[in-house]
Design goal:
By secondary structure, the chain is an alpha/beta fold. It has one domain: Ribonuclease Z/Hydroxyacylglutathione hydrolase-like (Metallo-beta-lactamase, Chain A, 4-Layer Sandwich). Helices cover 28% and strands 28% of the residues. The radius of gyration is 17 Å and the shape is globular. The N and C termini lie far apart (34 Å).
Length: 221
């Protein structure tokens, strides 16, 4: 089974992850944003070999250290096609992934779960065997990411949250920021307590987030 180490970095409570296969030493880094020296120090201390960089999206606070970590590891960057142009602009090799794509990490794999809304190309990284979902800015403990950015889509975000709510309740949620009452949670906890996942329809979700309803959308719950 893969092991996930979370490292809080920077001044915005960002969290980067090291996903590692203990049997082979292969590893992937998720959203290496800040304090790259600390992240790579942990990689070296554990004797790991970084073979992929996985991005949830390309907002500045999630890619600030991308050029540094690419230079140090030579690893390709996996992201949604909508985010690939920004990755290339940062001088990195972008390898686009589609929904459901499986990225090998040693004897295990991480699956791309397309999660638009916060940005058009958000991806949550899912470990179905280990029951872990790394959500970036899509889902925080007790809340969710913003949908008032120029390229945000509240309707897509609502559908994304519905999709996450349908995952097994014991799946652990590892957000990209430590903004909640606890650093991590579970799908079951979020469904029971997170107002964003409890919104009965799109209109209620938009009211919660303080944004206009983009058309006459109706919920599917």
């Amino acid at each position: 089974m893969l092991a996930v180490e979370r490292i809080e970095v920077g001044l915005l409570h960002n969290v980067s992850e090291i996903v590692a296969c203990p049997g082979t030493g292969a590893a992937a880094l998720v959203d290496p944003a800040f304090e790259i020296d600390r992240i790579l120090g942990r990689v070296r201390a554990r004797g790991l070999r970084v073979e992929a960089i996985l991005l949830t999206h390309t907002h500045d606070d999630h890619v600030a250290g991308l050029d540094e970590v690419v230079a140090a590891t030579g690893a390709p960057v996996r992201c949604h096609p909508y985010e690939a142009a920004r990755v290339r602009a940062l001088g990195a090799l972008a390898v686009p992934v589609e929904d459901g794509a499986r990225i090998p990490v040693g004897h295990g794999f991480v699956e791309a779960l397309y999660a638009p809304g916060h940005t058009p190309g958000c991806v949550c990284w899912y470990l179905p065997v280990e029951r872990i979902l790394m959500t970036g800015d899509v889902l925080f403990v007790g809340s969710c990411g913003g949908v008032s950015y120029p390229d945000s889509d509240p309707a897509a975000m609502y559908e994304t949250l519905c999709r996450i709510a349908d995952l097994p309740e014991d799946v652990r949620i590892f957000p990209g920021h430590d903004y909640g009452p606890t650093p991590t949670s579970t799908v079951g906890w979020e469904v029971a307590r997170n107002p964003a996942l409890q919104a009965p329809d799109l209109a209620a979700f938009c009211a919660l987030k303080g944004v206009p309803v983009p058309g006459a959308g109706a919920g599917r719950r």
